């Protein structure tokens, strides 16, 4: 009886490992497809779009607010193309260059969950590249006095 349970447990562990490997491969394929789609979307600009295609972002802190406004506006008017957080994050990543592109590489290499969470990704960008929402809130409070 114990031997049968040990064999069954071993078989389950082997199957679990195989499914984990297959899942990792499928996630990698999905990530590549999302990035490829974002790249293709960047190349296709519909003539009727009232919002210009966003400029790239190289990590310059002073440009981060402008970059976020441009990308958010573009995604809002093209919401059918950005149907989930992963697509939105992939779109932002496709526009990163220089220091900003170097910053995102570790997240991609470790397949970070942040790549599927648009708000968390933008918050991480703000933290890294120097956009502090608290400072803005303090400025607003000072204006109230």
UniProtKB/TrEMBL annotation:
UniProt protein name: LDOC1 regulator of NFKB signaling
Pfam family, one: DUF4939
One GO cellular component, as annotated: nucleolus
Taxonomic superkingdom: Eukaryota
InterPro entries named in the record: DUF4939
One GO term of the biological process aspect: cellular response to lipopolysaccharide
Gene this protein is translated from: LDOC1
Chain ranges of the DUF4939 domain: 28-137
